[in-house]
Write a structure and sequence with these properties.
The chain contains 15 helices and 16 strands. It is an alpha/beta fold. α1 (17-29) packs across α14 (308-324).
Length: 357
């Protein structure tokens, strides 16, 4: 359903670290937004700075949230942790026939959106969590590799170069403390110890890096994007860091305690902001992937692209623009499913390289 009047794109969580970057990217691109979130004073500041209208609304205000979205075509949801915030926003989008985008990398949110897929198709909207660095580059690379080896049964993905993390990202990480790792095995999500496997990954042409397995969002999304039944995701670590990770397994019971998480969260609240503009401008991100079939044949490729938070801002605005232009698929979608493996190549300064099998 095409809505008329109002503001086509609502950005919820506009004054958070990544929300501000998305708003700034929209302003640079000439894309109009309605800024939204819980705190009116913070919205007023960023709204005046960028020349965008704003409106405060609590996520638990069911009527207010639906009124906010009533004339919007799409919402970019940037207020995490999404394990707590995604469901009320998705339900409001379904009730108002509003397309849903968010910037999560949380496996549980991808699975939640997938469960709402049929209802989304019925009302004619798209649900696409993960419109940023989580998981646009990795998802697009997964789809690309599946095209190179259609009978692939195993997929490994790895990323490097996020740099510093924002307050919101760190808060989400705290919620996952003590949960260990996660893989896709024979089509099912399976809990494993964090760092249960390691690889030497050629993120760059001049060297390889030690990388350990982590519960990245692609263990959910790549299954829907490619149908590959066994998926693992990795990030680089130093040998010393990896030894600490292995020791942490014995303390998962402690890390799951609420008082421990509250203590860590207080430290994050006091100190953590996110990478500076200069750090983001200098930063680069690298993504590597490899698929393997039952006969042992492999295909591998690598992406070099922008710093993660910068990419998130650009890709989120880009996808929202596509939706407003009528370029979307209804139901639950991943970036690669809806827009093909080449979506990532629309991001400036991105290069994809095939690697020797």
């Amino acid at each position: 359903m095409l809505k008329t009047g109002g503001m086509a794109i609502v950005l919820y969580g506009a004054y958070g670290y990544t929300g501000r970057l998305i708003a700034q990217e929209a302003a640079r691109s000439g894309v109009e937004l309605l800024l939204a979130g819980r705190n009116a004073e913070k919205l007023k500041i960023i709204g005046h700075a960028l020349g965008f209208p704003w409106r405060a609304c609590q996520l638990d205000d069911s009527a207010g949230l639906r009124d906010l979205l009533s004339e919007a075509q799409v919402v970019i949801h940037a207020a995490g942790p999404f394990m707590f915030t995604a469901r009320p926003m998705i339900e409001a989008c379904l009730d108002t026939s509003t397309h849903y985008l968010d910037i999560t990398g949380e496996v549980g949110v991808f699975e939640l959106a997938a469960r709402f897929s049929e209802r989304a198709k019925q009302v004619g909207v798209m649900l696409m969590p993960g419109t940023g660095f989580d998981v646009v580059p990795t998802d697009c690379l997964a789809v690309y590799l599946k095209e190179q080896l259609p009978d692939a049964t195993h997929l490994a993905l790895a990323f490097m170069g996020l740099g510093g993390v924002s307050h919101g990202t760190a808060t989400t990480m705290v919620q996952g403390l003590g949960q260990g790792g996660l893989v896709r095995a024979d089509g099912k999500l399976k809990r494993v110890p964090l760092g249960h496997k390691t690889l030497q990954v050629p993120f760059r042409s001049d060297r390889t890096y030690l990388a350990m397995s982590i519960p990245w969002g692609d263990v959910a999304t790549a299954w829907y994007s490619t149908g590959i039944p066994s998926i693992e995701t990795y990030m680089p670590v130093s040998p010393i860091q990896y030894r600490y990770v292995r020791l942490m397994r014995w303390f998962n019971w402690l890390l799951r305690q609420r008082w421990v998480k509250r203590l860590i969260q207080r430290r994050i609240d006091k100190k953590l902001v996110g990478p500076s503009e200069q750090e983001r401008a200098r930063g680069r991100s690298y993504v590597w992937g490899q698929v393997r079939n039952a006969w042992g044949q492999t295909r591998a490729a690598r992406l070099e692209t922008l710093e993660g938070y910068t990419l998130t801002a650009i890709s989120s605005v880009l996808i929202a623009q596509k939706v407003v232009a009528g370029r979307f698929k209804t139901g639950f979608q991943t970036p690669g499913m809806a827009y093909s493996a080449d979506l990532i190549l629309e991001i400036p300064h991105t290069k994809r390289t095939d690697l020797p099998a």
